[in-house]
Write a structure and sequence with these properties.
Layout: H1 7-34, H2 43-56, H3 62-70, H4 78-81
Helix pairs in contact: 2-3
């Protein structure tokens, strides 16, 4: 059974990729701000803001919370709709 990595090892391995993704996100938000028109009322932008609040938190289930935020609610009977 593999030995789990130490937190410092995970951070060392992932830091540059995490940094790149955060910079990409910041750049995209800047482009939205500079673009013509407004998306202030767009619920997708609110979901992004909410996900950033989740990421800034200290809970151990941030990935699950963000995934749930962007997921559609479960619909009973969906299998029948798709012939499954």
């Amino acid at each position: 059974m593999p030995i789990p990595m130490a937190a410092t090892e995970v951070l060392d391995r992932e830091f540059l990729d995490m940094r790149k993704r955060l910079i990409d996100l910041a750049a995209t938000l800047d482009r939205i701000d500079r673009a013509e028109g407004s998306v202030a009322d767009d619920p997708r932008l609110e979901d992004i803001r909410q996900s950033l609040k989740i990421l800034a938190g200290d809970t151990p289930d941030r990935a699950e919370q963000v995934q749930s935020l962007f997921s559609l609610p479960y619909r009973e009977g969906w299998r029948k709709e798709y012939g499954v």
